[in-house]
TrEMBL record:
The keyword Manganese applies. Belongs to the peptidase M24B family. Bacterial-type prolidase subfamily. This is Xaa-Pro dipeptidase. NCBIfam families: PRK13607.1. Residues 164-423 form the Peptidase M24 domain. InterPro entries: Creatin/AminoP/Spt16_N, Creatinase/aminopeptidase-like, PepQ_N, Pept_M24, Peptidase_M24B_aminopep-P_CS, X-Pro_dipept-like, X_Pro_dipept. The gene is pepQ. The lineage of its organism: Bacteria, Pseudomonadati, Pseudomonadota, Gammaproteobacteria, Oceanospirillales. Splits dipeptides with a prolyl residue in the C-terminal position. Keywords: Dipeptidase, Hydrolase, Manganese, Metal-binding, Metalloprotease, Protease. Mn(2+) 1 binds at residues 252, 334, 378, 417.
Length: 434
């Protein structure tokens, strides 16, 4: 941690101590015990799956990947970190960094996993724990109201969190540049992925989500999960949706590039989606409804499809008939932080649910924007046969140029995704400029 980030982190902890005190008082708890979690073994095996430390634990302790850690928060007391440092010659035992935050915690080093004993009072345990662990401690296990209230503390990012998100973006951006260069040189999906990881300086198990590296029609699979090992003969497109973590905070960036065999229409659509995204970002600021922005994305997408003669109806009709939904079934964006799809996107600040509108079930952010939020803005346009095929049967099918759609299909799709901070004046795009 740089000295500047360390100073921000101490202020972040000050604010967190005050906020936890308020929430614990309001909900009538003496304290809360946060569990980092630990990697799970595959069934019948001694190997573990990759692991992400619990978000509320990381909100305090800037060490992603820590396992078997317990953090006890009690108003008026320093945070108590139960630090698991086993005597283990098979693995490297974790060591606490030489950073100022460590002085602010009371640290108890232990060699056996398991929770600390709790003092008397009303306590909650939050994290990936079994109910009987909480019961044995005399505590409540993941009470919903308290969890929702603590989730809300992650909605407005502190200066420390914004600095982490900005750095995660800078690291991810280096990967995106390398991925594009690898594609232009004729690399296969796996080699593009490896170029991304090398340039962004991270191992695959540390990425915030499985990188999406889709060449040609794979770019139209929203969460495409494979890496082909053979290069393609014709290069139409590359979609890379990939991030980075900095002290646990995630970047989530997507870029789409036209290959040497791309059609003019595909190039025009990339340009159109990019401009659309820039217009939406330019309009961001506190007080806005993200649902309204998502609806505007659909209307603008209708215009783009019409301008490229993929549809012959008006933008309004393309939205109303579900054509734009078939071309872009995911939401415009989501909150971003310690989790890629960060908590509390579908709740009001008082915790009441805000479900997505009926026509857009995948929208992950339904609340009004406030300063301090960091969110993604990620419009897209894809050829997804299973969504388009049903439109072909009905009257709406006459509004679509199916030959043009078929010519576009080998390109898969387009997504352009930036990470944006809402400020009191408007916004600040954390993703480096193209
Ligand atoms: N990378 C997943 C998403 O953009 O939501
Ligand atoms: Mn995203
Ligand atoms: Mn993404």
């Amino acid at each position: 941690m740089t000295p500047a980030l360390a100073t921000f982190h101490l202020k972040h902890l000050d604010a967190l101590e005050n906020a936890y005190q308020r929430v614990l008082d309001e909900h009538g708890y003496s304290g809360v015990l946060l569990y980092s979690g630990h990697a799970r073994q595959h069934f019948g095996d001694d190997q573990t799956a990759s692991f992400a430390t619990y978000g509320h634990f990381l909100h305090w302790v800037p060490l992603p990947g820590i396992e078997h850690g317990w953090l006890l928060i009690r108003p008026g007391q320093p945070p108590l970190l139960h630090w698991y440092a086993p005597q283990d010659f098979w693995h490297l035992t974790p060591e606490l960094p030489d950073e100022p935050w460590v002085e602010r915690f009371r640290i108890e080093s232990v060699t056996e996993p398991g929770p600390p004993r709790l003092p008397s009072g009303r306590f909650a345990v939050l994290g990936d724990v079994e109910a009987d662990v909480a019961t044995a401690l005399g505590a409540e296990c993941n009470p919903e109201a308290l969890t929702i209230a603590l989730d809300e503390l992650r909605v407005r990012k502190s200066d420390y969190e914004v600095a982490c998100l900005r750095e995660a973006n800078a690291q991810a951006w280096a990967g995106h540049r390398a991925a594009r260069e690898a594609f232009d040189a004729g690399a296969a999906e796996l080699d593009i992925q490896l170029a991304y990881l090398a340039a962004s300086r991270q191992r695959e198990s540390a990425v915030p989500y499985q990188n999406i590296v889709g060449v040609n029609h794979h770019a139209g699979v929203l969460h495409y999960q494979h890496y082909d090992i053979q290069p393609v003969r014709k290069r139409y497109s590359l979609l890379v949706d990939a991030g980075h973590r900095h002290h646990g905070y995630c970047a989530d960036i997507t870029r789409t590039w036209a290959g040497c065999d791309a059609s003019d229409t595909f190039g025009a659509l990339i340009d159109g989606v990019t401009r659309l995204q820039r217009r939406l970002i330019a309009s961001l600021g506190p007080g806005q409804s993200f649902v309204a922005l998502h609806e505007r994305m659909h209307w603008e997408l209708g215009h783009l499809l019409a301008s490229q003669e993929l549809v012959s109806c008006s933008a309004d009709a393309a939205v109303a008939q579900g054509i734009t939904y078939a071309f872009c079934p995911h939401g415009l964006g989501h909150l971003l932080g310690i989790q890629v799809h960060d908590v509390a996107g579908r709740r009001r600040a008082d915790g009441t649910p805000l479900p997505p509108p009926a026509g857009y079930p995948a929208l992950r952010l339904t609340r009004e924007l406030v300063s301090g939020m960091v969110l993604t803005v990620e419009p897209g346009c894809y050829v997804i046969p299973m969504l388009l095929a049903p439109l072909r049967e009905g009257a709406v099918g006459r509004d679509i140029d199916w030959d043009a759609v078929e010519a576009l299909a080998p390109h898969g799709g387009i997504r352009i995704e930036d990470n944006v901070l809402i400020t009191t004046e408007g916004h600040d795009d954390l993703t480096p400029a193209v």
